């Protein structure tokens, strides 16, 4: 291996990948990671001056506009993913992913009623995965409905709503905005 690093990539949906990386490549990977981290931190700092912070990178809070979820759409196969990436996980195409605004409407794909959680989190609540109209699959909490299996139906229409993140604040006192799913009216 001559001084190369072994990197193990673990994903719940893919086989474990072990790569041998030369030190010069490893430092390049670290540079990319830290550059993205600095960019994310600077975006959060800018948001601090203008209002609440988004709870995740793909929740966008434009100044003077309505919040929205942003995905990355592959120009080759039209697959949509959350979070920044350089390679399409579906077709493997590089450099064809473009930011796209996701729909605020979708259908409930699956859910789980959570009865036990961390201290300070009210239970029970409904954790849900929603397929958005036009593409994209998002995990979040289903609100505005009793956590009762008799009242929650698969494929029911839901809207994405944006609200305060349950009163949570960072160490500087900044509030957070999150997204939730609510049964469509």
Mean of all residue-level pLDDT scores: 82
Computed Rg: 19 Å
| Overall body shape | globular
Order of helices and strands, N to C? Answer: EEHEEEEEEEEEE
Distance between the termini: 61 Å
| Biggest sheet statistics | 6 strands, mixed
Please provide the count of β strands. 12
Give the amount of beta strand, in percent: 35-45%
What's the number of helices? 1
Sheet with most strands: strand arrangement: 3-12-11-8-9-10
| Low-confidence blocks of residues | 23-34
Portion of residues within helices:
10-25%
Q: What class would the helix/strand composition place it in?
A: alpha+beta
Outline the structure in words.
The chain has one helix at 23-50; strands at 5-9, 17-21, 53-54, 59-60, 68-74, 80-82, 97-101, 105-114, 125-132, 137-142, 157-169, 175-183. With 185 residues, the chain is an alpha+beta fold. The strands form three sheets. Strands 3-12-11-8-9-10 form a six-stranded mixed beta sheet. A hairpin with a 7-residue loop joins β1 and β2 (17-21). The relative contact order is 0.14. Mean pLDDT is 82; it is low at 23-34.
Give the secondary structure arrangement, pairings included.
Elements: E1 5-9, E2 17-21, H1 23-50, E3 53-54, E4 59-60, E5 68-74, E6 80-82, E7 97-101, E8 105-114, E9 125-132, E10 137-142, E11 157-169, E12 175-183
Parallel strand pairs: 3-12
Antiparallel strand pairs: 1-2, 4-5, 5-6, 5-7, 8-9, 8-11, 9-10, 11-12
């Amino acid at each position: 291996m001559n001084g190369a690093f072994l990197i193990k990539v673990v994903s719940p949906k893919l086989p474990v990948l072990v790569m041998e990386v030369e030190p010069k490549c490893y430092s390049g990977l670290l540079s990319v990671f830290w550059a993205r981290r600095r960019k994310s931190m600077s975006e959060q700092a800018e948001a601090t001056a203008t209002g609440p912070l988004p709870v995740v990178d793909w929740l966008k809070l434009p100044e003077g506009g309505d919040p929205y979820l942003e995905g990355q759409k592959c120009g080759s196969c039209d697959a949509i993913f959350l979070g920044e990436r350089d390679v399409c996980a579906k077709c493997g195409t590089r450099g064809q992913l473009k930011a796209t605004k996701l729909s605020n409407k979708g259908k409930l794909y699956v859910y789980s009623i959570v009865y036990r959680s961390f201290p300070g989190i009210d239970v029970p609540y409904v954790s849900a995965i929603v397929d958005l109209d036009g593409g994209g699959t998002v995990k979040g909490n289903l609100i505005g409905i009793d956590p009762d299996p008799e009242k929650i139906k698969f494929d029911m229409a839901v809207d994405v709503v944006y609200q305060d993140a349950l009163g949570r604040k960072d160490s500087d006192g900044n509030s957070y905005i999150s997204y939730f799913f609510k049964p469509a009216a």
